[in-house]
Amino acid sequence: MGILKTILAAYSGVLRTWSNSAMQDRSTALRGPKIQLEKHLRVISVLQWILSFLIMGAACTAALIYLFCTDFWLIPALYTLWFIYDWNTPKQAGRRASWVRNWTIWTYFRDYFPIRLVKTHNLSPSRNYIFGYHPHGIFCFGAFCNFGTDVNGFLKEFPGIRPFVTTLAGNFWMPIVRDYLMSVGICPVTRTTIDYILSQNGTVVLKNRKGFVKVALQKGADLVPVYSFGENEVYRQLVFEEGSQWRRLQEKAQKLLGFAPCLFHGRGLFSPESWGFMPYCKPITSVVGQPITVPKIENPSKEVVDRYHTMYMDSLRELFDKYKTQFGLKESEVLMIL
Asked: For the chain, how long is the longest CA-to-CA vector?
């Protein structure tokens, strides 16, 4: 009888082992395709954002022109009338849509790198703010994810603060693209737009634009330095030597277009080992620094502007030095501001 019990116990143990092993194999088999699907969704989420800037404007314009030549001409005709009627909306903070800012696709966008938002100080909702975002990188992935969407909890971290990301006004001359950008709170970086947003108790995120200190003084908007560690690491950029012909052409193009065309590359679409236009999967961490209280002066002198600009630069350096070792940089790294 004792031998029979021993045999039954051993058999039960073997069954449990087989059962647990089978469950683990089944779990692994199910988890594998899910992980692959998530990777593909992350790539697609970033790819659509890149293509939105590179070809969406031209593609939508071409589609409207084509439809004008078909039996569906009424569709582009109505949109064109709406486009003309709605021309000034981007200058008046656009049309934010919370449901667009909370799309699930932005979660995959965030996790591709991944992207984080770090809060260092509280911000009073009774004040206006101008966030200076440094560095902006090629496609401003960190600025868009943290301030153009709600996936990293900006509204929870800074209750009562409504961020508006600014970009080149030319992006709002293109059909469909303008509506897409406005839906996530992106506006043209013009003086009219910034004045309007600040008059409505909004917060402007500027990507290292000159003259923002003078605007802050005229509107009494506090300056907030933001440094995004890793933003420049997601692409490898060819830097032209100072004084070279290519550098001079780049600087002329910047004066003409409002941005500096550059040569860069990332990883391939299907393989991280090949070259392509997809960014490398490098962590991006945007650290929001301590606000600098700015008085309201309608006509600030050059000396006052220079003083607050120096205060801002010092605060940015301090923010960089305090957090650089936490986010992958060496203690010896120095922030160069040109």
From this structure: 102
Reported confidence tier of residue 11, pLDDT bands at 50, 70, 90: very low
The residue with greater pLDDT, 68 or 24, is 68
Q: Give this prediction's pTM.
A: 0.84
Strand order in the sheet with 203-206: 115-119, 284-288, 222-229, 129-134, 203-206, 163-167, 186-188
- Provide the H-helix boundaries in the chain: 2-51, 57-68, 74-85, 98-101, 105-112, 141-143, 154-157, 177-183, 191-199, 212-219, 245-257, 302-323
Whether omega for the bond prior to residue 33 falls within 30 degrees of 0, making it cis, is no
Instruction: State the virtual CA torsion across 176, 144, 164, 327 in degrees, nearest 10.
Output: -170
Residue given tokens 């603060």 in the structure block = 161
Tokens found for residue 89: 């909306």
Helix axes 212-219, 191-199, angle to 10 degrees: 30
State residue 240's pLDDT score. 65
3-state secondary structure of 22: helix
- What's the pLDDT tens digit per position in 225-278? 999 999 999 998 777 677 777 677 766 766 666 666 677 788 988 787 888 889
CA geometry: angle 196, 202, 204, nearest 5 deg: 85
pLDDT in tens, 165-200: 998 888 899 999 999 999 999 999 888 898 889 888
Please count the helices (runs of H) and the strands (runs of E) in the chain. 12, 10
Tokens read off for 144: 């868009």
**3-state SS track over 49-70:** HHHHHHHHHHHHHHHHHHHHCC
Task: Say if strands 203-206 and 163-167 run parallel, antiparallel, or are unpaired.
Answer: parallel
